[in-house]
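Page 42, continued from yesterday. The earlier attempt failed because a stray header line got pasted into the input along with the sequence. Redoing it now with the clean sequence only.
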Amino acid sequence: MNSSPLIDQLIEAFRCLPGVGPKSAQRMTLHLLERNREGGTRLSAALEEALGRVGNCRQCRTLTEEELCRICASASRNRKLCCVVESPADIFAIEQSATYRGVYFVLMGHLSPIDGIGPEQLGIDKLIDRVREGEMEELIIACNPTVEGDATAYYIADQLRSLEVAVSRIAHGIPVGGELEYIDGSTLSYAFNGRKLMEDG
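This time it went through. Structure tokens are written below.
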């Protein structure tokens, strides 16, 4: 683009965000420079502060600027239940459902030997240590229903086999309101394999 180097630099910087291509990055850049410089300044300050201060929770590994995140620090959470997720975004999704009141453990990814991501990078040894502390009664594995997510879930379950904790996996299947003709084969397979008996009445 035949613009100033600083504008090109800002456009390129926006492209590091997921789902942002050249046009979207250009639109954001021009919007901030033309119409909302104050918003751009706030964005810059908030981004700089977050990048400088946000780290990982000592207990669950999610992103936070505190030693313990708000969920781990809360006295109202059920510490006998722990949900294992792949990323902090999964916690946001589960919390929005308002159906789970336990604590979490964030893997920050999934097993992927080709990318050099093994159990050490996912903190699985730390998860096992938490289970060994004895407070936990059930570990709910909520990895994504992908090949890598399945491999990660099975690996974690295998590592915990000798410990006194129930290990479960969230069900995957047809979403509420979904129609069978539009559901892919993999999702249908999960739905059939995860079927439950219907109770009378």
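Notes: The longest helix spans residues 37-53.
Reminder to self: strip header lines before submitting.
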